[in-house]
Amino acid sequence: MADVEAVAELRAVVLRSDLGRLGRYDERRVRQRLRNGFAPEHTWMIAVDGALAGCVALRPAERTYWLEHFYLDPDAQGRGVGSAVLSRLLERCDREDAVVRLNVLQGSPARRLYERHGFTVETEDEVDVFMVRRPVSAC
User: Fold this and answer.
1) What phi, psi does 79 have (nearest 5°)?
2) N or C: which end of the chain has fewer CB within 10 A?
3) CA-to-CA distance for 94 and 17, rounded, in angstroms?
4) Is residue 108 within 8 Å of 102, Cβ to Cβ?
5) Dihedral (Cα; 114, 108, 106, 87), 10-degree rounding
6) If you average pLDDT over residues 62-78, what whole number do you get?
């Protein structure tokens, strides 16, 4: 819980452009939604060169995990950090034969990362794209 405010601020920075483009950015709400959904027991902090570079949460549900709160500092983006973190989490889910679900904002460049890692669109609306990735067999 000690990291919640740093993560809330990171979320505001990372989502500002996409939420603004969608007409949904609100200075207070963007931070409060993170605080309301923050579960430290399912969250990892991402460090690069000893400094906070992001976070990610993997919340368990029945034979499914929800990938949530995956935010990378803009300075860490495009350097393979997100791909490395996502690969490790997905390997874990594959070992458990678990489906992974997430939602990403319409038009977000993060969608390409998820597609490269095997996520496909399950459903979408004017704001969110809901994606799913079935487990990859080790055989």
Assistant:
1) -115, 10
2) C
3) 33
4) no
5) 10
6) 92
pLDDT value of residue 124: 96
Task: Report the pLDDT value the prediction gives residue 138, as an integer from 0 to 100.
Answer: 56
By the 8 A CB rule, do 41 and 1 touch?
Answer: no
CA 96 to chain centre: 20
The dihedrals phi and psi of 75, each to the nearest 5 degrees, come to -70, -20
- Taken in order 28, 32, 99, 90, the sign of the CA dihedral is positive
In a 10 Å sphere around its CB, with 0-12 CB exposed, 13-18 middle and 19+ buried, how is residue 93 labelled? buried
Q: Which amino acid is at 85?
A: V
CA separation (Å) from 127 to 52, 96, 108?
28, 31, 10
How far is residue 69's CA from residue 38's CA, in Å, rounded to a whole number? 8
Of 106, 65, 105, the closest CA to residue 86 belongs to 65
Give the closest residue to 119 by CA, choosing from 95, 81, 93. 93
pLDDT of residue 62: 84
Q: What is the pLDDT of residue 2?
A: 78
